[in-house]
Amino acid sequence: MAKKNAGSLVWSLAVPVALLAIWEAASRAGVINPMILPSPSAVFLRWVAYARPARPFDPAEGTYLAWFFSGELLHDAAASLYRVVMGFVIGAGLALPVGLLMGTSETVYRLLNPLLQILRPIPPIAYIPLAILWFGLGNPPAFFLISLGAFFPVVMNTIGGVRTVDAIYIRAARNLGASGATLFWRVILPAATPHIMTGLRVGFGVAFIVVIVAEMIAVNNGLGYRILEAREFFWSDKIIAGMISIGLLGLAIDTGLSRLSDHLLRWHRGIEVGK
Amino acid sequence: MSAMGANAPGAGSVPEPARPAITIRGVTKTFEAKDLGTVVALDGIDLDVAKGEFVCLLGPSGCGKSTLLNAVAGFSLPTSGSVKTDGVEVTAPGPDRAMVFQEYALFPWMTVFANVAFGLEIKGVRRGEIKETVDALLATLHLTEFRERFPKDLSGGMRQRVAIARVLALDSPVLLMDEPFGALDALTRRNLQDELLRIWSEWKKTILFVTHGIEESIYLADRIVVMTYRPGRVKKIVEVGMPRLRDVSSPEFNKLKRELTEMVMEEQRRHAEAEARLATAD
Ligand SMILES: Nc1ncnc2c1ncn2[C@@H]1O[C@H](COP(=O)(O)OP(=O)(O)O)[C@@H](O)[C@H]1O
Ligand SMILES: [Mg+2]
After folding, report:
1. Among candidates B108, B119, B122 on the partner chain, residue whose Cβ is nearest the Cβ of A268
2. Could you tell me which residues are beta bridge partners of residue B100?
């Protein structure tokens, strides 16, 4: 088992390591202008500097924990995470009831679906001018844009999930005496959760894209803001360090959501339990 | 084993002249199908099922067996005619007519225990009582060690046991079963048939059981209702009258099997002819 894992680790790292080695060698040989593409080692050093607290630890200034988190990177990451979570909670929080209602009631579906279909193809990015006009600068327009981005995937998947609940479950439940709220909470909702979880994951992915864009226009911290700021100083090493941080944060969030989804859907066919 | 036949209600003794468990009078059901026009799935069905009786509906696929069972269950009411259970007109599905489906229809997000407990929770039974009832049922159906499993981790036979436990939990007097063992292999099927006969005789249930298996119907039923293909009518009602457990290799069994095969094949041919007509019409 361990041997097999080690083997697959070697395989999965082979190409990235080789690319990094070539890139590093090319930079050291002076083939590429470091202003255009800095060496991996320069990026790494810059990333460490970005992540490290600016000043040495001084007990007089506060706790060790506060010091540890005083670096610019963790501040930015926290700011981005705060925005994306707020936007996602608002967007998904509106999408879930709307989707459940549209999924269960034919009348609501027929009333709201045309509007949904018209608004859905508009990328959240296109709302930027309106967002600034309506909400000014700072976090509010970012929340607005992120929640828009999260809303549509969640609402569409929730509707789909509820509308495609296998009729046999409804029959069985009604035969057992279930109706109304019991039927909805104990049967329709759980039967729809695989779709809903997909919607939440896709929605969070979109929200994460939108937060980076939103930070480039309306605020002055966060990972998106930081890479744009670095560009103004031609700090290409910091741009890449910031991009890598965005990637790592995105990966961490998606892994968390995937774990949560596996746990909630452990009853579902085709999902490995306890992996 | 042979004691089972002796105390099985309705098997040998004459049923008391009480109100029948199920009364079906002049039940007709038509469907408007796009390509076929009006399909007469059921046409003037009359049938009484006595309390404690085990009745099989037998016929080739498409002859309206499920339609009739769904009318009794209340899923799809007849176009005309009436269905009464214990003298009360059927208007909606209810836990007094528990249904076992061929597709099991277990809730995959609930454990075995939760599936069986669900009907009792809806009834508002106390937690402690639910636990007691469900655990006893799981033991009866040899499911105790699967209590906390999800349906996806069970074999077909095990799933159908859970489905049976789930309807038994409701303690409904009438069990409706739509080809419940149709998807199982022969050995598992025989096993569950025996289990069902044991439950039926111990719990004094009334069972209306749909099948297209001729042997299955003879093995299980007090009476077999053979149905015709389109329109669905009662072709013949056959009393089985053999003591249980029945020996499928006995001459008596096989004589009845030949007779029934003859009848079912006749309807099967009409089904095939109808399909052929449809194919040439296109
Ligand atoms: N919902 C429906 N719409 C149209 N036709 C139906 C519907 N349900 C059943 N039928 C038709 O009614 C007939 C009887 O069907 P069914 O009761 O399912 O037969 P069985 O269970 O004996 O195989 C079939 O010919 C079928 O095509
Ligand atoms: Mg059928």
Report:
1. B108
2. B177
Is B232 in contact with B64 (CB distance < 8 Å)?
A: yes
Query: Residue B232 Cα, ligand 2 centroid: separation in angstroms?
Result: 12
Pairing of β B54-58 and β B80-85: unpaired
Question: Who's near B173: CB < 8 A, 6+ residues apart?
Answer: B21, B51, B86, B96, B205, B206
Pocket test for ligand 1, best of B42, B43, B66, B76 (most atoms within 8 A of CB): B66
Range of the domain at B259: 20-96+209-272
Whole-model pTM: value is 0.84
Residue B114: count other Cβ atoms within 10 Å of its Cβ: 18
CATH 3.40.1280.10 is held by the domain A64-264: no
The amino acid at residue B253 is F
What tens digit of pLDDT does each residue of B147-190 get? 999 999 999 999 999 999 999 999 999 999 999 999 899 999 99
C-alpha to C-alpha distance for B72 and A189, rounded to whole angstroms? 28
Residue B7, in any domain of the structure: no
Is residue B30 within a helix (H) or strand (E), and if so which, with residue range?
Answer: strand B22-33
Does residue B90 fall inside a structural domain? yes
User: Within a domain: residue B109?
Assistant: no
Residue partners of A241: CB distance under 8 A and separation at least 6: A43, A44, A46, A47, A50
Backbone φ and ψ of B174, nearest 5°: -115, 130
Token pair, residue A172, equals: 């069985």
**pLDDT, tens digit, for every residue of A20-69?**
999 899 888 888 888 888 989 989 999 998 888 877 888 887 888 888 77
Is any Cβ of chain A less than 8 angstroms from the Cβ of B122? yes
- In ligand 1, the atom with minimum distance to the C-alpha of B61 is 23
Domain count, chain B: 1
**Are B94 and A173 within 8 A, CB to CB?**
no
For residue B50, the domain's CATH number is: 3.40.50.300
Residue A232 tokens, joined: 């103004």
Q: According to DSSP H, which parts of chain A are helical?
A: 2-28, 40-51, 64-68, 72-104, 106-119, 128-135, 139-163, 167-175, 180-182, 189-215, 223-232, 236-264
Determine, yes or no, domain membership for B242: yes
Tell me if chain A has a CB within 8 Å of the CB of B244.
no
Lookup: tokens for B266: 């006749």
